[in-house]
Amino acid sequence: MISPDTKSITVLSVSFYSSFHLKRLFTNLVEKADHPENIQFLIVDNANGKDKGLKESLQDVVDLTIVNNDSRIRQRSKSHASALDLGLKNIETEFTLIVDPDIYVFKSGWDTFCINPLSKNGKSVLGAPYPIWKLGKVHDYPSVVFMFFKTALVQVSGNTFYPFSSTLGRLWNSVIRKIVRLGGIASKNRLDHFRFLRTFCGWLENLTGITSPDTGKEIIELFRSTGFQSIVFDTPYSRDLLEIGRDNFAAIAREFELYFHENEPILTHMYSSGVFHWQTEKGHDIDYWLDLIHKVKN
Q1: β-strand 9-15 against 95-99: which pairing, if any?
Q2: How confident is the model over 215-267, as pLDDT tens digits?
Q3: What is the spatial distance between Cα 4 and Cα 233, in angstroms, rounded to a whole number?
Q4: Whole-model pTM above 0.85?
């Protein structure tokens, strides 16, 4: 169990041979924080200690704890969910930030930015929803890509991050989301280019609801059913950013995930989707992603 001491935020991330991303991410979070001294880091190692380079690569990270998770017999989403469940049990700070390793935060003072609205209304959750072009997913509550909340309010519920419905429910969802996504037609690139396609698929999605629940499904249902205020970032399309002259950000949005809040860039998520609907030409090119970030920063 992580002792809170004077810390207020625990950054929880799941690693599966992700030391390169985590080292970069933790440096990014510390540099962009108003109060880095109030932050501690918790990694759940889904390689169960087999990633020998994890501790070595992160040896300079202050206030870091690594917990091993035996996930070898679990499907990927189940494995991720079990790691988050384990991590949450080991947190005692007032606030928790769940974040994917392949994130870059643009927002200076992100810690103050996240804490302020929750200080006014503790029954709130803030973060990055699934992008609007990921049809069938949750767009009105944060996902585990970047999810900030008061720790105790989620711990006390006993809910799990386990993502799946019953077998029958999964089969039904599979059929319906194929309709919503028009087979393979409603890809990220086509939705970016054709507004009428966004409108039509959005209408279908509103009719059918969530047909692709992902990690954190029960937690999101908890937030919804108990009336949490949801503060979510926007996920603009590349074409829309080009039209207002934000070309560098448009390049990021074209290939990766990009999040804004009140017209201000908050973060980008590399994500490297294996789902063909959401794949882009350079979505797996980490050097290209980092180069685009560098151009925006400068």
Answers
A1: parallel
A2: 998 899 999 999 999 999 999 999 999 999 999 999 999 999 999 999 999 99
A3: 28
A4: yes
Other C-beta atoms within 10 Å of 240: how many? 13
**Domains of the chain, start order:** 1-164+213-232 (3.90.550.10)
φ, ψ of residue 191 to 5 degrees: the values are: -65, -35
Neighbours of 161 (CB within 10 A): 26
Q: Shortest CA distance to 125 belongs to which of 142, 100, 110, 139?
A: 142
The tokens describing 173, both together, are 């969802």
Helix (H, G, I), strand (E, B) or coil at 123: coil
227 Cα distance to chain centroid = 21
Query: Rg for the chain (alpha carbons), in Å?
Result: 19
Q: What pLDDT, on a 0 to 100 scale, did the predictor assign at position 73?
A: 56
Q: Which residue has tokens 């501790």? A: 55
Ranges of the chain whose pLDDT falls below 70: 1-6, 72-75, 273-274
